[in-house]
Design goal:
Largest sheet: 3 strands, parallel
Order of helices and strands: EHEHE
Shape: elongated
Number of helices: 2
Oligomer: single chain
Strand order of the largest sheet: 2-1-3
Strand content: 15-25%
Number of strands: 3
Radius of gyration: 19 Å
């Protein structure tokens, strides 16, 4: 016999706890090693390319690293993020990445 029960589920869900990189103060973004993380969301393609170019022209970074996610819904792989965080002075994270 089929049960007629309504199951209530909390809209808050169960938050996933991710380890975070150590945050370091940044005196200036100019001339530093910078990185971009972007989720490649379709509606931001035109904006993001222009944003990267404009920001690089403004701050003239010593080096630039990029991590473009292949899936808009999942976080950047932990190993990829850790590697990126070790070689840059700061990250710009875009559009839900």
């Amino acid at each position: 016999m089929e049960s007629k029960v309504i199951e209530l589920i909390s809209p808050l869900g169960h938050p996933r706890r991710e380890e975070q990189a150590e945050r370091r103060p940044l005196e200036t973004p100019f001339g530093k090693r910078m990185g971009f993380i972007w989720n490649q969301y379709q509606t931001t393609h035109g904006f993001w390319a222009r944003f990267e170019q404009a920001f690089e022209a403004l701050v003239k970074p010593r080096s630039v690293e990029r991590a473009y996610k292949s899936n808009t819904w999942t976080p950047l792989e932990t190993t990829q993020f850790s590697g990126l965080a070790q070689v840059v002075d700061y990250l710009i994270v875009g559009v839900g990445a």
